[in-house]
Specification:
mainly alpha, 0% strand, 70 residues
């Protein structure tokens, strides 16, 4: 599973570089942070409230950053 997440992270990184827009790069960065948190920090196996809180926090932070740069 970690290899699959690694490939997804690489694809998202390439996509953000190719497209070249800062708002899109920040949104992709938020998705990558959520993937890393759920897989590498093992929040996937944690209580649902912890994993949900982390993902919700990442969505809020990403939304604020995208709104500030748009």
């Amino acid at each position: 599973m970690r290899a699959f997440v690694y490939v997804i992270l690489l694809a998202l990184a390439v996509g953000s570089v190719v497209h070249g827009q800062i708002a899109l790069a920040l949104a992709i960065g938020g998705a990558k942070a959520a993937l890393v948190g759920l897989e590498d920090m093992e929040l996937r196996g944690a209580a649902r409230a912890h994993a949900g809180g982390f993902v919700a926090g990442m969505l809020v932070l990403t939304g604020v950053l995208v709104a500030l740069t748009s």
